[in-house]
Amino acid sequence: MIKRVLIMVIAILIAFWFLTPIVLIVISSLTPSAEYYDPHRILPRSLTLDHLRSLFVTLGGWRATLNSIQVAGMSIGISFLFGLPAAYALTRFVFKGKNSIRLGILLTRSFPVLIIGIPLLILYMRVGISDTLLGVALAHTSMVLPFVVLISSSIIGGISVEYEEAGMIFGLSRFGSFMRITMPLVLPGLAASAIFAFIMSWNEVFVAAILTVGNRTLPAHILNAAMTAPDYFKFAAGTIMAVPAMIFIFFTRKYLMSLWGISLK
Amino acid sequence: MAEVKIEGVKKYFGNVKALNGIDLTIEDGKFVVLLGPSGCGKTTLLRCMSGLEKLTEGKIFFGNRDVSNHAPKSRNVSMVFQSYAVWPHMKVYDNIAYPMKIKKFDKQEIKKRVVDTAKLLGISELLERYPVQLSGGQRQRVAVARAIVLEPAVLMMDEPLSNLDALLRVLMRSELKKLQERLGTTTVYVTHDQVEAMTMGDLIAVMQDGIIQQYGKPEDIYHKPSNKFIAGFIGSPQMNFIDVEVRKNGSVHLLAPEIDIECTPDMSEKITKGDFGKLIMGIRPESINHVADKNAIPIKGTVYFTERLGAETIVHLKVGEMRIISRIAGDEIFEEDTPMNMYVPPSKIHLFDPESEESILD
Predict the structure, then answer these.
(1) A contact test, residue of B89, B142, B162 with most A CBs within 10 A
(2) What ipTM does the predicted assembly reach?
(3) Are B199 and B173 in contact (CB under 8 A)?
(4) Which of A12, A35, A203, A262 keeps 20 to 30 A from A88, CA to CA?
């Protein structure tokens, strides 16, 4: 009994630790400017959507949001196009150097994308894709692709190879068997990892800020626009950044959990 | 339906020689069991026949079709997997119908075949269920139904009974065998269970170290094992192996402490011909009896331990420094540590060359 209470208390404390800043950010973003600067108030008497509106409409936040969605969409598309076959090969085939390749993929995750930002910018200027969404998407792909390969390979590994072999015995090619037998079984897991990849791209600030000037993604745009604006704008920007990601995670939490423990039956 | 001919098949995984030269002919309509301990290559051989593994060397024919380089889908084979591999995202009906859907059968034809096959296997009630809602035994029936619905040239089964409980296993053994007799499909069945092999197979291929050690009828494998490995692998409890010395003075004798066996003329001839000084003698526990038969040779020992199983009694007899195991029908009581004579008919003795471990009699 005491143990239960103790666990509850600790759980509440941890929840507070993580939730308090988020709640404060959301409240501040909704506080009218006059009340925000009133030193005698913690909680506002009334709430307003003005800051969010001006951030979206006047300051170009809406366009930046669309940019962000496009960038994330492209980098997810490219990552799965190349990542899925790679993941399949890593899971199903035995070949020399397989573990080194796996380790190599993991290693690319260990240095920040930031350090390739400047070289990439120079390269992009030569090729002519600087300040384009495709450019940012490619940079994000370098971050998302290894994640997709590693996660997909463990998702595919969770599906017994005999299902696929049965497909091949009963009349499908290897590719056909993958598409028609394995794919339907791994789809929920892949969808969850796609959403996670989306959030990775959605949250990435630095590379996007280096690579673009006019065509900024939402975080890069906010970095630029909100940092010089009054505090409540900063909080409004924080809300815009955090809420979509939180909604995504809320609806896919079941799959995200299984993504790391992987048990797909 | 087809005859299967395997010629000089080799399969290497890197440096591991999983199959090291297999030659095997399976007559049309026969039920052949590939039997062997784990790692002997039996599953690899099956997978090579199905096309799931590529051959390193050799050829495989179904009838007069050379299928060595064909993809599994164009070999017209089917398989029951060890894990059943019943597709979890399809209902039972769709699982059985899917092979026909892929081959673009007419809808009416598919339905008729699924219904007929389901009836044959007693799973008509389950057609609308998903595999997760089935027991292991039911799932297996679905796997078998899917495998036979298209009337394959060769039906393959990879340890299909190993995941069932003991009672169901005995039941399915006879059912699968009856089903195969009725369909007349050439069947290759992989198992490490000698009882399954003995009861189900028309022919058994005993494998070890990537080669077929002996290929023959179950009774021949049991009565005339071609080497010591097979003799020890088939039969439970295991055959007794006794190192004996050969002595010739007039007639040929086999000697071990407390044992002196006078050879039959047939045995003597073969021993003399091979000029053996030492041999390994093999006697099955069930060939050793406590009742003296005519011509039976006595073995003197003391009772060390008995296992009374009800239908039979296993007696561990201490003979000199050796332990000899005897299997006696019926429930018998023997006092431990008392002297006892056991009897062996000379015709039931197996002899193996100690060098090559090959049988010298058969």
Answers:
(1) B89
(2) 0.85
(3) yes
(4) A203
